[in-house]
User: Fold these one by one.
Assistant:
Number 1:
Amino acid sequence: MDREKLKARIRALLQMTTDRGCTEAEAMAAAAKAAELMREAGLDEDQLEIGEAWFSASAGARSVLTRLWTCIASCTNCVTVFDGERGFAFIGAGPGPEIAAYLCDVCRRAIETAEREFKAGDAYRRLRKTSTRKQALLEFRQAMIVRLGIRLRELFAADNNTAAISQAHAARAAMFGPGRQVNLPTIKNLRSTAATVAGWSAGNDVPLNHGVSTALDTKLIGRS
């Protein structure tokens, strides 16, 4: 059984109490079954509160985009795991992982749209060399990522929870083992170029606010 489905089943069993209308026998049987499932899966009560959500990233872990995904993880009190086939997993107390995956999807689509518009513009099309165009696109993307990261950190500053992040780190180690640290690609000081200015402006135009939490809650409620 999928680990998240298993945790959902255990949580449901633990909700079967006499206060919720179950008989003493039903409550005891449910608690015993929950304990059995937790023991078999190697879960403790703290881990039941930890969830994971996957974000399918087309670019690899060494892409400059990874800096944005890890920034989003930090903003939502999550940690990440990268899998070459599945993408990025966000691990943390709910609904952090779901919000992180949702934000990544929003930002990815915004970046893809902005890059298409930039490449269709005169400033990019006037560049003749492939190498020059490639550099301009990189400068555009880096500036957009930096601006989005700044805005996200400002928006979620009040939600930062050191204890929750520590719990997420412990859960990741328990779920995936020690793993291997991936060095994030560096973004050097942004040069003042037309591409950088355009990327910064594009990052500033993406609608981001705490409404993403409300939007996500609405989606999740509609799914239940």
Number 2:
Amino acid sequence: METSVLDPQVAPGPAVAEMPQCSHQWMIDSPNGPQSRGECRLCGAERYFQNYIEGSSWGYNVTLDQLRGDNNRLPVTTPQPSKTSLAEDL
């Protein structure tokens, strides 16, 4: 007698349980260079994170001291008064 794959007399094997994936909770080290190490609180996985966003306007113009938080102020330039004169001033 031939058996079909769909034969109801054949009991299915045990179900294979899939391993749940971790929904990581990263603890990232303080910035120190181009990358910071991160470790998941739940599973202990390790990953490195960039300390800047590619294409951002500040890119590499920020010092490591500023990234570390050693210096609370970013450099500021103050506008200089215009040296042009009005026709009325002539």
